[in-house]
């Protein structure tokens, strides 16, 4: 059980500010759909509740116009293990809300990141993983001089904040322009090994 005090210690003030500032859309549309029960996917005609986890679109009882569309600052690739149950995957929610910026791949059909390793990070718990802050420093170093993100990355500020609570937080003044894509793995733990060891993912900075 966690008390408010413990929660505050864990989350820190920046996270509670983030939650306070979230713009949450009205959920009436989902309540109405729930009363109607399962409905058809407009693409594959399967009977689903709220959304189709195969086509990543809302079902007919959920008007697309009433579902928020989020523009993300980076592109997201989600690599899904083929044995994962589609209906249980939370990757679908990201694709539903940010359709243009999120791509879901089913392993082993994944992109070749060879020409994009200098602007891509992979989110995965690993002995080699670094903080988001560290990864941005790394990507900055990897950028070609022409792109040159270095001057806008405020190093003195980074160093000062290293002793603050938000070790991994990146402030608005810090430049994340070097980061174009974030890759996630959607799989149960015992199935991640095959994906994370795939040669196409080697050399991508892990956070
Ligand atoms: Zn469908």
Structure description:
The chain is 29% helix and 15% strand. The chain folds into 2 domains: 27-66, no CATH class; 68-207, no CATH class. It is globular and about 55 Å long. The chain has helices at 4-20, 28-36, 91-97, 132-142, 155-161, 189-196; strands at residues 39-40, 47-48, 51-52, 57-58, 75-80, 102-106, 120-123, 181-186, 205-206. Mean pLDDT is 81; it is low at 1-12 and 150-166. The chain has 6 helices and 9 strands. The protein has 207 residues and is of the alpha/beta class. The strands form 3 sheets. Strands 6-5-8-7-9 form a 5-stranded parallel beta sheet, with helices on both faces. It has a two-stranded antiparallel sheet with strand order 1-2. Strands 3-4 form a two-stranded antiparallel sheet. The two termini are 29 Å apart. Strand 1 (39-40) and strand 2 (47-48) form a beta hairpin. Zinc ion binds at residues 41, 43-44, 46, 52, 54-55. Zinc ion is lined by residues 41, 43-44, 46, 52, 54-55.
Topology:
Layout: H1 4-20, H2 28-36, E1 39-40, E2 47-48, E3 51-52, E4 57-58, E5 75-80, H3 91-97, E6 102-106, E7 120-123, H4 132-142, H5 155-161, E8 181-186, H6 189-196, E9 205-206
Parallel strand pairs: 5-6, 5-8, 7-8, 7-9
Antiparallel strand pairs: 1-2, 3-4
The protein binds zinc ion.
- Approximate shape: globular
The SSE string, one letter per element, is: HHEEEEEHEEHHEHE
* Beta-strand content estimate: 5-15%
Strand order of the largest sheet: 6-5-8-7-9
Q: Which spans of ≥5 residues are poorly predicted at pLDDT below 50?
A: 1-12, 150-166
The major sheet is characterized as: 5 strands, parallel
């Amino acid at each position: 059980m966690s008390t408010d005090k413990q929660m505050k210690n864990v989350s820190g003030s920046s996270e509670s500010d983030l939650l306070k500032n979230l713009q949450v859309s009205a959920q009436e549309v989902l309540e109405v759909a729930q009363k109607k029960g399962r409905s058809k996917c407009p693409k594959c005609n399967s009977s689903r509740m709220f959304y189709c986890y195969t086509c990543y679109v809302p079902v007919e009882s959920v008007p697309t116009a009433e579902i928020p569309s989020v523009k993300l600052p980076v592109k997201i690739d989600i690599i899904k293990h083929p044995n994962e149950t589609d209906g249980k995957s939370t990757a679908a929610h990201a694709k539903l809300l940010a359709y243009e910026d999120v791509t879901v791949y089913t392993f082993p059909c994944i992109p070749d990141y060879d020409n994009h390793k200098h602007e891509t990070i992979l989110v995965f718990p690993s002995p080699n993983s670094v903080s988001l802050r560290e990864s941005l420093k790394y990507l900055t170093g990897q950028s070609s001089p022409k792109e040159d993100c270095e001057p806008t990355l405020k190093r003195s500020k980074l160093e000062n904040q290293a002793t603050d609570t938000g070790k991994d937080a990146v402030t608005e003044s810090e430049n994340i322009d070097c980061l174009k894509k974030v890759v996630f793995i959607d799989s149960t733990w015992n199935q991640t090994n095959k994906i994370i060891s795939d040669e196409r993912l080697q050399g991508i900075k892990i956070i």
